[in-house]
Specification:
- This protein is mostly helical and 402 residues long.
- It folds into 3 domains: 2-36 and 83-301, no CATH class; 38-72, no CATH class; 315-398, no CATH class.
- Helix content is 63%, strand content 4%.
- It has helices spanning 2-37, 43-47, 84-102, 119-141, 149-170, 173-208, 215-244, 248-251, 256-278, 285-301, 321-331, 357-362, 364-373, 387-398, and strands at 50-58, 61-68.
- Strands 1-2 form a two-stranded antiparallel ribbon.
- A hairpin with a 2-residue loop joins strand 1 and strand 2 (61-68).
- The structure holds heme C.
């Protein structure tokens, strides 16, 4: 019953999290697009202090948007801030982290072959990294390093890769990935809460008091700009991490941390094309290089056909169906059965049930990938599957059926 209810809970929170995330990223993309498409306004608007405007048609009506150089002469009665999208995405993300990873199936987070942690210790380490990185980032953005945008970007990337590497050597792949995501998401929402919002409040206060914004407002605005640039580059990598739990091929890889670093780099680099275009620089070579790097990554990650030795001649090495049946019973069907005996699952995970050896063969490619090549299955190697058993399974899957 507990597993059943927790499944519902995780569905509801995940659903909310995705919707809030869509609203956050959507609003952020929309405002970047707006800034990108502002045109020189007619003279009468310039006189009102408008620096750019645009027209759009959507959902059966015309919209006229104007951006002020500083602010309106008088504060409008209703002003939209766009902050709850960010806060609710983070809050629901943290709730999901707790339900799925800290209170859910321990196999997502703990891999005893990396570190034999209790669920409590694993959660403490995870939260420690999230909090620790936020403190470090906030210290850095207030330091002189923040004056050099490029150097800051490099340091930030190096730090995130270090976190990625460390977590990957402590947690199971999936848990490591999601924690890198949680670290990034926390920095992003911290940027909104600790930098962008204070800057906007200062600006609004100045307009309310009919003052020309002074140097303090300008300093806050410059920092907010840097923070929003960081958020902008982090959007694509964090969305990759959000969907990465569907791809054991990446987080289950021996060098999963490097795969994540590479994909993070490529996606942030691709974002650079759009940011340059925003400044009027059109450089399609960036997209081309990102595409080439992706193709290289696809090549590097391709499973080598030699990783599973084919059956050598000689009958003594032939793997029998009985051997495999007992292997599957020991290592897989606790979870992968129509009615799993593991209390953590209500239904066969990934919809895969090994109720017969035929079913194992039906999922041949995936089984090779998950339990032989990448060793990501059994989850967290909870059943203690040995390398010889993986080889045996690989040989059986590849030997011709007689
Ligand atoms: C402790 C529970 C557990 C055990 C034991 C287990 N699995 Fe899984 N398996 C899972 C979960 C959970 C998923 C879904 C993974 C995800 O969504 O990240 C999964 C997914 C899979 C997938 C799909 C991967 C994909 O690419 O979609 C395959 C194939 C698989 N398991 C094979 C196996 C094999 C073979 C064994 C035994 C050697 C095994 N599993 C043992 C929990 C388990």
């Amino acid at each position: 019953m507990a597993a059943y209810l927790s499944e519902w809970l995780s569905l509801i929170i995940r659903w909310f999290h995705v919707i809030a995330g869509v609203a956050w990223v959507g609003a952020s993309f929309y405002f970047i697009w707006l800034d990108n498409h502002l045109r020189k306004p007619p003279e009468w608007k310039v006189k009102k202090g408008i620096k750019g405007d645009l027209w759009a048609v959507h959902g059966g009506g015309f919209y006229e948007v104007a951006k002020y150089e500083l602010g309106p002469e008088e504060m409008p009665p209703v002003l939209h801030w766009f902050k709850w999208e960010a806060y609710s995405t983070w809050l629901s993300g943290m709730a999901l982290l707790f339900t799925v990873y800290y209170f859910g199936s321990p196999g997502y987070l703990v891999d005893a072959s990396r570190a034999d942690l209790t669920p409590l210790a694993a959660a403490a380490i995870g939260l420690g990294f999230i909090g620790g990185m936020l403190v470090l980032y906030e210290a850095l953005i207030r330091s002189p390093l923040a004056r050099n945008g490029k150097a800051f970007g490099l340091v930030l990337f190096a730090l995130l890769v270090a976190v990625d590497w460390t977590l990957f050597h402590i947690f199971a792949g999936r848990g490591a990935f999601i924690h890198v995501g949680a670290v990034i998401g926390t920095l992003m929402v911290g940027n909104v809460f600790l930098g962008i919002m204070p800057s906007q409040r200062a600006l609004v206060r100045a307009v309310e008091n009919n003052e020309t914004p002074g140097p303090e407002v300008a300093r806050l605005a410059a920092q907010a700009k840097l923070r929003s640039t960081h958020n902008n580059y982090l959007t694509l990598p964090i969305i990759f991490i959000m969907i990465s739990n569907h791809y054991p091929m990446f987080y289950g890889h021996e060098y999963g941390w490097a795969v994540l670093a590479a994909i993070g780099f490529i996606t942030a680099f691709a974002r650079h094309f759009f940011n340059l275009r925003h400044r009027g620089v059109y450089r399609p070579s960036i997209l081309l290089i990102a595409a080439i790097m992706t193709v290289i990554l696809i090549g590097v990650l391709a499973p080598s056909p030699t990783s599973v030795p084919a059956t050598p001649s000689g009958s003594d090495t032939k793997v029998t169906d009985a051997d495999i049946q007992s292997l599957i019973d020991t290592h897989c069907t606790g979870c992968h059965a129509k009615v799993p005996s593991s209390p953590a699952f209500q239904a066969p995970p990934a919809g895969i049930a090994f109720d017969s050896l035929e079913a194992v063969k039906q999922h041949r490619e995936k089984v090779l990938q998950a339990a032989v090549n990448s060793q990501y299955m059994p989850l967290g190697n909870m059943t203690g599957m040995k390398p010889e058993e993986r080889k045996m399974l690989g040989r059986w899957l590849q030997q011709p059926t007689q």
